[in-house]
Design brief:
The chain is mainly beta and 307 residues long. It has no helices and 29 strands. The strands form eight sheets. Strands 18, 19, 20, 21 and 22 form a five-stranded antiparallel beta sheet that branches. The radius of gyration is 17 Å and the shape is globular.
Protein backbone atom coordinates (compact mmCIF):
# COMPACT_ATOMS: atom_id res chain seq x y z
CA UNK A 1 0.00 0.00 0.00
CA UNK A 2 1.26 3.47 -0.91
CA UNK A 3 -0.01 6.67 0.70
CA UNK A 4 -0.66 9.08 -2.20
CA UNK A 5 -1.84 12.08 -0.17
CA UNK A 6 -2.35 13.19 3.42
CA UNK A 7 -3.90 16.24 5.06
CA UNK A 8 -7.19 15.87 3.20
CA UNK A 9 -10.37 17.02 4.96
CA UNK A 10 -12.56 13.90 4.88
CA UNK A 11 -11.85 12.74 1.31
CA UNK A 12 -14.42 10.69 -0.58
CA UNK A 13 -15.64 10.11 -4.14
CA UNK A 14 -12.30 9.12 -5.75
CA UNK A 15 -12.17 9.02 -9.55
CA UNK A 16 -9.08 7.64 -11.27
CA UNK A 17 -7.98 9.65 -14.32
CA UNK A 18 -6.02 8.34 -17.28
CA UNK A 19 -2.94 10.44 -16.45
CA UNK A 20 -2.65 8.59 -13.13
CA UNK A 21 -4.16 11.40 -11.08
CA UNK A 22 -7.09 10.87 -8.74
CA UNK A 23 -9.88 13.42 -8.46
CA UNK A 24 -11.73 13.39 -5.14
CA UNK A 25 -13.90 15.51 -2.91
CA UNK A 26 -12.99 16.93 0.49
CA UNK A 27 -16.36 17.02 2.18
CA UNK A 28 -15.27 19.04 5.22
CA UNK A 29 -13.59 21.66 3.01
CA UNK A 30 -16.39 21.79 0.44
CA UNK A 31 -13.99 21.35 -2.47
CA UNK A 32 -12.94 19.13 -5.39
CA UNK A 33 -9.24 18.25 -5.33
CA UNK A 34 -6.96 16.64 -7.91
CA UNK A 35 -4.14 14.50 -6.50
CA UNK A 36 -1.27 13.94 -8.94
CA UNK A 37 0.52 10.57 -9.21
CA UNK A 38 3.33 12.03 -7.08
CA UNK A 39 0.97 13.36 -4.42
CA UNK A 40 0.66 17.07 -5.25
CA UNK A 41 -2.79 18.47 -4.49
CA UNK A 42 -4.66 21.04 -6.58
CA UNK A 43 -8.11 22.43 -5.78
CA UNK A 44 -10.24 22.42 -8.93
CA UNK A 45 -13.48 23.84 -7.51
CA UNK A 46 -15.10 24.88 -4.24
CA UNK A 47 -18.86 24.31 -4.52
CA UNK A 48 -19.31 24.49 -0.74
CA UNK A 49 -21.88 22.47 1.18
CA UNK A 50 -20.77 18.86 1.24
CA UNK A 51 -19.51 17.47 -2.08
CA UNK A 52 -19.67 13.68 -1.66
CA UNK A 53 -19.89 11.08 -4.45
CA UNK A 54 -18.42 11.96 -7.85
CA UNK A 55 -18.35 10.47 -11.36
CA UNK A 56 -17.28 11.46 -14.87
CA UNK A 57 -20.15 12.00 -17.29
CA UNK A 58 -20.39 11.58 -21.08
CA UNK A 59 -19.14 15.16 -21.64
CA UNK A 60 -16.02 14.60 -19.55
CA UNK A 61 -17.26 16.80 -16.70
CA UNK A 62 -17.41 15.77 -13.06
CA UNK A 63 -20.89 15.18 -11.65
CA UNK A 64 -21.09 15.56 -7.90
CA UNK A 65 -23.59 14.56 -5.23
CA UNK A 66 -23.59 17.46 -2.77
CA UNK A 67 -25.08 16.46 0.59
CA UNK A 68 -25.41 20.05 1.82
CA UNK A 69 -22.81 19.71 4.58
CA UNK A 70 -22.41 18.33 8.11
CA UNK A 71 -21.42 19.50 11.54
CA UNK A 72 -17.90 18.16 12.11
CA UNK A 73 -16.11 16.94 15.21
CA UNK A 74 -12.89 15.13 16.08
CA UNK A 75 -12.79 12.04 18.27
CA UNK A 76 -9.78 9.85 19.02
CA UNK A 77 -7.79 11.69 16.37
CA UNK A 78 -10.37 11.06 13.65
CA UNK A 79 -12.48 13.62 11.83
CA UNK A 80 -16.13 12.55 11.76
CA UNK A 81 -19.33 13.95 10.20
CA UNK A 82 -22.27 14.72 12.44
CA UNK A 83 -25.70 16.30 12.24
CA UNK A 84 -27.29 18.65 9.74
CA UNK A 85 -25.46 21.97 10.13
CA UNK A 86 -27.05 25.31 10.99
CA UNK A 87 -26.16 26.73 7.54
CA UNK A 88 -27.68 23.81 5.63
CA UNK A 89 -29.56 24.94 2.50
CA UNK A 90 -30.36 21.84 0.46
CA UNK A 91 -28.88 18.75 -1.12
CA UNK A 92 -28.17 18.96 -4.83
CA UNK A 93 -26.52 17.49 -7.92
CA UNK A 94 -23.79 19.65 -9.45
CA UNK A 95 -21.71 19.63 -12.63
CA UNK A 96 -18.06 20.66 -12.31
CA UNK A 97 -16.23 21.82 -15.43
CA UNK A 98 -12.98 19.78 -15.52
CA UNK A 99 -10.93 22.72 -16.86
CA UNK A 100 -12.34 25.90 -15.32
CA UNK A 101 -13.88 24.38 -12.19
CA UNK A 102 -17.13 26.22 -12.86
CA UNK A 103 -20.03 24.82 -10.81
CA UNK A 104 -23.53 24.37 -12.26
CA UNK A 105 -26.45 23.19 -10.15
CA UNK A 106 -28.52 20.60 -12.06
CA UNK A 107 -31.05 19.33 -9.51
CA UNK A 108 -32.13 20.11 -5.98
CA UNK A 109 -35.58 18.46 -6.05
CA UNK A 110 -37.52 15.56 -7.58
CA UNK A 111 -41.27 15.78 -8.17
CA UNK A 112 -41.50 18.74 -5.84
CA UNK A 113 -39.59 17.03 -3.02
CA UNK A 114 -36.26 18.59 -2.07
CA UNK A 115 -33.15 16.47 -2.25
CA UNK A 116 -31.77 16.15 1.25
CA UNK A 117 -28.30 14.60 1.17
CA UNK A 118 -27.21 13.14 -2.21
CA UNK A 119 -24.33 10.77 -1.56
CA UNK A 120 -23.07 8.45 -4.33
CA UNK A 121 -23.41 8.31 -8.11
CA UNK A 122 -22.83 6.01 -11.10
CA UNK A 123 -23.42 6.55 -14.84
CA UNK A 124 -24.97 3.93 -17.09
CA UNK A 125 -24.14 3.28 -20.75
CA UNK A 126 -27.17 5.34 -21.83
CA UNK A 127 -25.63 8.51 -20.41
CA UNK A 128 -27.89 8.87 -17.39
CA UNK A 129 -26.89 8.43 -13.77
CA UNK A 130 -28.21 6.76 -10.64
CA UNK A 131 -27.61 8.40 -7.28
CA UNK A 132 -28.49 7.81 -3.67
CA UNK A 133 -29.90 10.39 -1.28
CA UNK A 134 -28.75 9.60 2.25
CA UNK A 135 -31.01 12.22 3.84
CA UNK A 136 -29.99 14.36 6.81
CA UNK A 137 -29.93 13.61 10.53
CA UNK A 138 -30.96 16.13 13.16
CA UNK A 139 -30.89 15.97 16.95
CA UNK A 140 -34.20 14.11 17.29
CA UNK A 141 -35.19 12.92 13.82
CA UNK A 142 -33.81 11.97 10.42
CA UNK A 143 -34.94 11.62 6.80
CA UNK A 144 -35.74 8.53 4.82
CA UNK A 145 -33.45 8.11 1.81
CA UNK A 146 -33.99 7.28 -1.84
CA UNK A 147 -32.51 6.10 -5.14
CA UNK A 148 -32.90 8.36 -8.18
CA UNK A 149 -32.11 8.42 -11.91
CA UNK A 150 -31.36 11.62 -13.80
CA UNK A 151 -29.98 12.96 -17.09
CA UNK A 152 -26.82 15.06 -17.05
CA UNK A 153 -28.35 17.93 -19.04
CA UNK A 154 -30.72 18.80 -16.19
CA UNK A 155 -33.83 17.78 -18.15
CA UNK A 156 -35.13 14.77 -16.18
CA UNK A 157 -35.01 13.25 -12.71
CA UNK A 158 -37.13 10.33 -11.46
CA UNK A 159 -37.44 8.40 -8.21
CA UNK A 160 -36.45 4.74 -8.51
CA UNK A 161 -36.97 3.68 -4.89
CA UNK A 162 -37.78 5.47 -1.65
CA UNK A 163 -37.78 4.78 2.10
CA UNK A 164 -34.31 3.31 2.17
CA UNK A 165 -32.52 3.48 5.52
CA UNK A 166 -29.66 5.93 4.95
CA UNK A 167 -28.66 4.72 1.44
CA UNK A 168 -25.04 5.35 0.60
CA UNK A 169 -22.99 3.48 -2.05
CA UNK A 170 -24.39 2.92 -5.56
CA UNK A 171 -23.05 0.71 -8.35
CA UNK A 172 -24.14 -1.04 -11.54
CA UNK A 173 -23.70 -4.70 -12.48
CA UNK A 174 -21.46 -5.37 -15.52
CA UNK A 175 -24.50 -5.94 -17.77
CA UNK A 176 -26.13 -2.72 -16.56
CA UNK A 177 -29.30 -4.52 -15.52
CA UNK A 178 -28.97 -4.20 -11.74
CA UNK A 179 -28.28 -1.23 -9.46
CA UNK A 180 -26.80 -2.06 -6.06
CA UNK A 181 -27.38 0.24 -3.07
CA UNK A 182 -25.66 0.01 0.32
CA UNK A 183 -27.47 1.11 3.48
CA UNK A 184 -25.11 2.59 6.06
CA UNK A 185 -26.48 1.72 9.54
CA UNK A 186 -27.94 -1.67 8.60
CA UNK A 187 -24.87 -2.82 6.59
CA UNK A 188 -27.24 -4.21 3.97
CA UNK A 189 -26.93 -4.40 0.19
CA UNK A 190 -30.10 -4.06 -1.90
CA UNK A 191 -30.46 -4.80 -5.61
CA UNK A 192 -32.82 -2.94 -7.93
CA UNK A 193 -33.46 -5.02 -11.05
CA UNK A 194 -33.95 -2.67 -14.01
CA UNK A 195 -36.67 -2.99 -16.63
CA UNK A 196 -35.41 0.11 -18.48
CA UNK A 197 -33.19 3.08 -17.58
CA UNK A 198 -34.53 4.57 -14.37
CA UNK A 199 -37.31 1.99 -14.00
CA UNK A 200 -36.87 -0.90 -11.55
CA UNK A 201 -38.96 -4.00 -10.95
CA UNK A 202 -40.67 -3.73 -7.57
CA UNK A 203 -40.03 -6.69 -5.29
CA UNK A 204 -42.68 -7.27 -2.60
CA UNK A 205 -41.98 -6.89 1.10
CA UNK A 206 -40.01 -3.65 1.13
CA UNK A 207 -41.40 -0.12 0.65
CA UNK A 208 -38.56 0.77 -1.71
CA UNK A 209 -39.03 -2.35 -3.85
CA UNK A 210 -35.43 -3.56 -3.69
CA UNK A 211 -34.22 -7.15 -3.55
CA UNK A 212 -32.15 -8.16 -0.52
CA UNK A 213 -28.58 -9.30 -1.31
CA UNK A 214 -26.53 -9.31 1.89
CA UNK A 215 -26.32 -8.02 5.45
CA UNK A 216 -23.29 -8.12 7.73
CA UNK A 217 -23.52 -8.93 11.42
CA UNK A 218 -21.85 -7.22 14.33
CA UNK A 219 -20.95 -3.56 14.59
CA UNK A 220 -20.27 -2.70 10.96
CA UNK A 221 -21.68 -0.09 8.58
CA UNK A 222 -21.51 0.38 4.81
CA UNK A 223 -20.32 3.43 2.91
CA UNK A 224 -19.62 3.78 -0.82
CA UNK A 225 -19.14 0.91 -3.27
CA UNK A 226 -17.79 -0.08 -6.66
CA UNK A 227 -18.37 -3.24 -8.70
CA UNK A 228 -15.54 -5.38 -10.07
CA UNK A 229 -15.24 -7.06 -13.47
CA UNK A 230 -16.82 -10.28 -12.17
CA UNK A 231 -19.85 -8.41 -10.84
CA UNK A 232 -18.83 -8.55 -7.17
CA UNK A 233 -19.79 -5.62 -4.92
CA UNK A 234 -16.76 -3.98 -3.29
CA UNK A 235 -18.16 -1.91 -0.44
CA UNK A 236 -16.24 0.31 1.97
CA UNK A 237 -17.03 -0.81 5.50
CA UNK A 238 -17.01 1.56 8.45
CA UNK A 239 -16.02 0.73 12.04
CA UNK A 240 -13.99 -2.32 10.97
CA UNK A 241 -12.14 -0.18 8.41
CA UNK A 242 -12.26 -2.42 5.36
CA UNK A 243 -13.37 -2.99 1.79
CA UNK A 244 -15.69 -6.01 1.81
CA UNK A 245 -16.13 -7.92 -1.45
CA UNK A 246 -19.59 -9.49 -1.77
CA UNK A 247 -20.76 -11.80 -4.56
CA UNK A 248 -24.08 -11.06 -6.31
CA UNK A 249 -25.57 -14.02 -4.40
CA UNK A 250 -24.63 -12.42 -1.06
CA UNK A 251 -21.52 -14.43 -0.14
CA UNK A 252 -18.64 -12.51 1.44
CA UNK A 253 -15.60 -13.35 -0.70
CA UNK A 254 -12.83 -11.09 0.58
CA UNK A 255 -12.13 -8.51 3.28
CA UNK A 256 -9.27 -6.02 2.79
CA UNK A 257 -8.54 -4.15 6.04
CA UNK A 258 -7.08 -0.70 6.64
CA UNK A 259 -5.92 1.21 9.69
CA UNK A 260 -8.72 3.81 9.55
CA UNK A 261 -12.22 2.87 10.81
CA UNK A 262 -13.59 5.58 8.51
CA UNK A 263 -12.68 3.70 5.30
CA UNK A 264 -15.26 5.28 3.03
CA UNK A 265 -14.67 4.89 -0.72
CA UNK A 266 -12.84 2.83 -3.30
CA UNK A 267 -12.24 3.21 -7.02
CA UNK A 268 -10.18 1.21 -9.51
CA UNK A 269 -7.43 2.42 -11.82
CA UNK A 270 -4.26 1.52 -13.62
CA UNK A 271 -3.96 0.23 -17.17
CA UNK A 272 -5.71 -3.02 -16.29
CA UNK A 273 -7.88 -1.59 -13.50
CA UNK A 274 -5.74 -3.72 -11.21
CA UNK A 275 -5.09 -1.00 -8.63
CA UNK A 276 -7.46 0.26 -5.93
CA UNK A 277 -7.57 3.81 -4.63
CA UNK A 278 -9.14 4.02 -1.17
CA UNK A 279 -10.12 7.05 0.89
CA UNK A 280 -9.27 6.79 4.60
CA UNK A 281 -11.42 9.72 5.59
CA UNK A 282 -10.98 9.89 9.35
CA UNK A 283 -7.22 10.36 8.99
CA UNK A 284 -7.48 12.32 5.71
CA UNK A 285 -5.53 9.96 3.46
CA UNK A 286 -5.73 8.63 -0.09
CA UNK A 287 -3.95 5.28 -0.54
CA UNK A 288 -3.12 3.13 -3.55
CA UNK A 289 -2.71 -0.65 -3.49
CA UNK A 290 -2.43 -3.56 -5.89
CA UNK A 291 -5.95 -5.00 -6.06
CA UNK A 292 -5.09 -8.11 -8.05
CA UNK A 293 -2.45 -10.65 -7.10
CA UNK A 294 -1.95 -14.32 -6.25
CA UNK A 295 -4.91 -14.37 -3.84
CA UNK A 296 -7.33 -12.32 -5.96
CA UNK A 297 -7.18 -11.94 -9.74
CA UNK A 298 -10.36 -9.98 -10.48
CA UNK A 299 -9.78 -6.35 -11.52
CA UNK A 300 -12.21 -3.48 -11.24
CA UNK A 301 -15.07 -2.87 -13.67
CA UNK A 302 -14.55 -0.13 -16.27
CA UNK A 303 -16.93 2.78 -15.69
CA UNK A 304 -19.03 4.10 -18.55
CA UNK A 305 -17.31 7.43 -19.16
CA UNK A 306 -14.13 7.45 -17.08
CA UNK A 307 -11.62 9.88 -18.59
Amino acid sequence: MRVMATGLRFPEGPVWLKDGSVALVEIASGCITIVSPTGEKRVLATPGGGPNGMAVGPDGAFYVCNNGGFDWHEMDGLLRPGLQPADYETGRIERIDPVSGAVTRLYDACNGHKLRGPNDIVFDAHGGFYFSDLGKTRARDRDWGGLYYAKPDGSSIVEVGYRLNTPNGVGLSPDGKTVYVAETPTARIWAFDLESPGVAKKHPGQPHGGRFVCGLGGMQMFDSLKVDAAGNICVATLVTGAVTVIAPDGRVLRVVRFSDPMTTNVCFGGAGLDKAYVTLSGTGQLVELDWTGPEWSTPGLALAFNR
